[in-house]
Amino acid sequence: MIAEDDPLLREGLTLLLRAEGLDVVAATGAPGPFLSAVDEHRPDVVIVDVRMPPTHTDEGIVAAVEARRRQPELAVLVLSAYVEQAFAADLLASGSARLGYLLKERVGRVEEFLDALHRVAGGGTAIDPEVIGQLLTRPRPDSSLERLSPREREVLALMAEGLGNAAIAEKLFITEGAVHKHIRRIFAKLGLAPDDRADRRVTAVLRYLDVAER
C-alpha cells in the first residue's frame, strides 16, 4: 500500500512497484483513507509519506504508528523530502524490525529503493545514508566511541543503515571475514559482552548514534 499526497509520486510509485511484479492493493493521499485501506486489505508493507494533509506536519507518521498498532506485523517504509532528525532518531531507538526511513530522492535510484523496500518487507531495517550522515554529526558523549578506528566507524555506520555483513563487505571492498573482525573489535571497544537479553549489533548502533536511552 502507498500513502502519498503528491499524486504524481503516488502514481509513479504504483507503476514502478507493479512493473516489479508487486501487488499494490491501494494508493491513498490522506491518513483517513490510508487507515481504512489498511483495515480492509491487511497489506504486508506500506510506503508512507511523513507529511500529509491536513497540516502537512507529522500526519503520515501518526498514521503509520496507528497502522502498526492495528497490524503489529506490518512493515513500514517512511518517505521524507528531507531528514527529520527527531523522527529518524526515534525510529532507530525503537529497535523495531520491519521499519525503514528513506529520502524521496532515493526513489529515483530504483535499485536502492527496491532493495530497501524488500529488506523492510523481509523483517529488516533500512535507513537512508543521508539520515545516518546527519545523525553522526551530532555530539556524542560516549567517550568509548572515540576508541573506534575510522574503518570501524565506517562499518558501524553501514550497520546503522541496516546492512548485513555481506553487504558491508561489498560496500567497503573487503571480505566478510574482515567485517566480522571489525564488528568483534567494535563490540569489545564499546564493552558489549555477549548477552542473550540484548542484541549487541543494535545496541552498538544506537550508542553510536546517541539515540539510546542512557
Automatic annotation (TrEMBL):
Keyword entries, A-Z: DNA-binding, Phosphoprotein, Transcription, Transcription regulation
Taxonomic superkingdom: Bacteria
Domain Response regulatory, residue spans: 1-119
GO BP terms, alphabetized: phosphorelay signal transduction system; regulation of DNA-templated transcription
Span of domain HTH luxR-type: 141-208
Keyword Transcription regulation applies: yes
Listed SUPFAM superfamilies: C-terminal effector domain of the bipartite response regulators, CheY-like
GO MF: DNA binding
Record's keyword annotation contains rRNA-binding: no
Modified residues (4-aspartylphosphate): D49
PANTHER family in UniProt: TRANSCRIPTIONAL REGULATORY PROTEIN NARL-RELATED, TWO-COMPONENT RESPONSE REGULATOR
Protein name: Putative two-component system response regulator
Organism of this sequence: Actinoplanes missouriensis (strain ATCC 14538 / DSM 43046 / CBS 188.64 / JCM 3121 / NBRC 102363 / NCIMB 12654 / NRRL B-3342 / UNCC 431)
Lineage: Bacteria, Bacillati, Actinomycetota, Actinomycetes, Micromonosporales
